[in-house]
Amino acid sequence: MQVELKSPCKVNLILNILGKRPDGFHELETVMHPVKIFDVLTFERISSGIDLTCDNAALPTDSRNLVHRAATAFVEEAKITDGVKIHLAKRIPMEAGLGGGSGNAATALLGFNQIFGSPLTPQVLQRLAAKLGSDVPFFLQSSPAIAIGRGEQVRSLPTFPALDGYYFVLIHPGFGVSTPWAYKNLARFPSALNGERGRAERLVQSLNLSIDAAGSDFYNSLEAPVLEKFPLLAIFQEFLLENGAAMALMSGSGSTTFALINGKEKAERLQEKVREKFGSSVWVGSVEV
Ligand code: C5P
């Protein structure tokens, strides 16, 4: 039996960092929203081993790949003696702040559970996901969510009425940003490092009303170090806002900038303008929220 699953990505509508923890991670509160741009994973049982292939040669297929690590964690936990063959078709930009790799890991856990007859409970999957990475548990579910702790404690939310009819326009500059680098350099920006708790909940309340009500609660603490190093990303935001976007923000640790704009036509026009202005070295996409 072969199982095929789509692996989505996300943007952070707010990423509010509250401080550095003794374990080296950062305490945060975030609102994550799924984005309907997908990688595709296929799963098959084989007699032994973990056989991972990927259509993008830039991505390692050994234990450096989160999907490989998810496979190891799953077969150990479920005491499976058979093996698994996985193919990953990569479409989501990497080191992009879109959680592509985290989504792949969560989707892999769900795929293994399907092909092996659901040996693991949702609670165990949640524990394995959190060990694989802070953003992985979010992708075990498919709704917008608020997450706390280091990002691994996830509470699903209903869809936001304010975003009805809106489109995400995403710009990837053609280079990635390393997440550990972004967090490390946040230390130079004490006010961004020590955010005020409660803003994520406030954003959720606003998004039950309107985008305008959200105002400055669309916020990302990691913009402080990342926009300083890559001013092009600030220029993207300015351009998006000048051309009709209701908001514009960096996602995660970057390098993707995203905007919200009302209606398909406006989104496509904005996408076209970005292409004209910034040329073919940037990747731009638009997708319904
Ligand atoms: O959890 P994950 O492996 O995705 O984290 C990657 C890196 O991002 C960590 O090694 C750490 O440097 C940083 N990070 C952090 N605080 C978080 C999440 C990630 O410092 N809450």
**SSE class:** alpha+beta
Q: What is the straight-line distance between the termini?
A: 33 Å
- For the residues shown, what is the average pLDDT? 97
Residue fraction in strands: 25-35%
Molecules bound to protein = cytidine-5'-monophosphate
Tally of alpha and pi helices: 10
Count of DSSP E strands?
Answer: 11
Shape: globular
Describe this structure in words.
This protein is of the alpha+beta class and 289 residues long. The chain is 33% helix and 29% strand. The chain has helices spanning 66-78, 100-115, 122-132, 179-185, 190-193, 199-206, 211-214, 223-229, 232-242, 264-278, and strands at 2-20, 26-46, 50-54, 83-89, 145-148, 153-156, 166-172, 219-220, 247-250, 257-262, 283-288. Strands 1, 2, 3, 4, 5, 6 and 8 form a 7-stranded mixed sheet that branches. Strand 1 and strand 2 form a beta hairpin. Helix 1 packs parallel to helix 2, helix 1 (66-78) runs antiparallel to helix 3 and helix 2 (100-115) packs antiparallel against helix 3 (122-132). The chain is globular. The mean pLDDT is 97. Bound molecules: cytidine-5'-monophosphate. Cytidine-5'-monophosphate is lined by residues 25-26, 28, 133-135, 150-151, 179-180, 183.
